[in-house]
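Our collaborator T.R. sent over the components below with a one-line note: 'Predict the complex.' Nothing else. No constraints on interfaces, no templates requested, no preferences about which chain binds where. So this is a plain run: every listed entity goes in together, and whatever single assembly comes back becomes the starting point for the next discussion.
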Amino acid sequence: MRNALRAYRVVLASRARSQASHRASFRMDLVGALLVGLIEFTEIWVLYTASDQIGGFTLTQIMLVFGLSDLAFSLADLVAGHCDNLPRYVRAGTLDVFFLRPQAVLAQLVTSDLSLRRIGRCLVGATALTVALVLNDIDWGIGTIGLLALALACGFVIFTAQFVTAAGLQFFLVNGAEMTNAFVYGGRYAATQSATVWPRGLLVVFGAIFPVAFAAYLPVVTLLGTPGVAGLPAWLGWCAPVAACWAVVVAAVCWRWGLRHYRGAGG
Amino acid sequence: MNVIETDGLTRVFTGRPERKNRMRRARHVAVDHLDLTVREGEAVGYIGANGAGKSTTIKMLVGILVPTSGTVTTAGLHPLKQRRALARRIGVVFGQRSQLWWDLPVRESFSILSAIHSLTADDERARTAELVEMLEMGEFLATPVRQLSLGQRMRAEVAAALLHRPELVILDEPTIGLDVLSKQRLREFLVAQRREHGTTLLLTTHDMGDVERLCDRILVVDHGRLAFDGTLDGLARTVGARRELVVDLATPHGDLVDLHGAEHVRSESDGLRQRLAFDPQRTTAARVLAAVSERAEVLDLSIAEPDIEDVVREIYRATRG
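Returned assembly:
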């Protein structure tokens, strides 16, 4: 076990070193990622200049949703975002090389890269979350902290699972990145919004199938006691682990299915 | 013991459904009821035309592809169910795909692979030093892989595949694109590895030189079926694989017929350039050259290997009748 972990650690360390060796481009990437995050927050802020409340949420309240989901997504992106590269690996034959090593293929894919520049995105999410926690009127206690930690952890798992699900589907749709991006990045965007503004179709997609609503929106409704989607109980925010488990199951099925397809079709 | 054993190994690729008739799909039989056995310590050349099913066979042997039917056992393991255990016991080089980290120095790729194969620090040091010396990699050990020449990269690829002392080494086109010197170096290394470690070798190639210098058994595959299984001598007897000595003479000369052990093929430029075929099993290029030199002054010479495509074509013709 220790040996197995050492192998992954050595790979990741080498990835980190190779990025640190291109300092200028690393700094630019970092700043770029930071700017993208800022622009996304500005977008929400602009919406709220037109109206004090959208979907029952004020700007400071939605900032909490944004901060929580953005941080969870950025962390997942840091760990598993390069699963997007799968079609490139398939075309270049790198994936065949993964089969020749005594490690799980998915573990090799996940550790094949570590984009430190994505830390820039994490900073935006973390800042928004911190500011929102200060500005909102929160009844602090063990329960509140527990709920926040749970939401963050489950959000991370859900988004990571989304990346793996997308990778699994890429085996079938070698040029289907557009389609999978729609729910991975669309899901990320949806997760920063109040679910009350979603049309019913989106509610089903992002509430149940790709359960990003559990990453931030539902826990925040529970936390702040704001009116949520009609008919949904306030304690639903505590069910994030259930959603996370579901996302992991979907990811595992898609990945195995994709891998079997690859071995069946020969890439 | 058999290191590779296949029984009725078959692989069919199905294409997309046809436009007109959704129930019909294009079928392509890449490997067709192939029965192979490779014994421990053998060096086997696996040759055939492009698309004959060589790479598909290899992918099934190592667990990348699932057979449509039939069974395959590699190093006593099931390549699909025991892929990870198998990966520790075999080394594979795909000439066209790299297993090195292109942005890292060669040395670092070796240390990552050592960690992947759980070599101890001492073992890693000793084995890396051995490979670096034998493959003469010292000068480019600190160079990032992306800056290596093709010959250097292939040596590094082979070293990477052999780092964990695999009992079976599979090489898919290991010498493709290499210059004569690099080829020679690589072949000598592989011969030495076999001698020292008893490594079993399976290689696909388009280079007759690889087959002649490395393999003691040859398998020719045609449309996914085994068309020939035997020794190089047997192959030469079947198809008459001869080499050609091309000599450029100082002055025009009549056709050099009746040379001992060589046959005149044709003359060019009024006999200034002459082509002589000889059987490498019976004589040597040096002897033929000596015989030519007795009659005329030789300015320049070259030796043409029999084209593996020609050999394969001959085999195909013989087996298809």
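Summary for T.R.: The first helix of chain A runs from residue 2 to 20.
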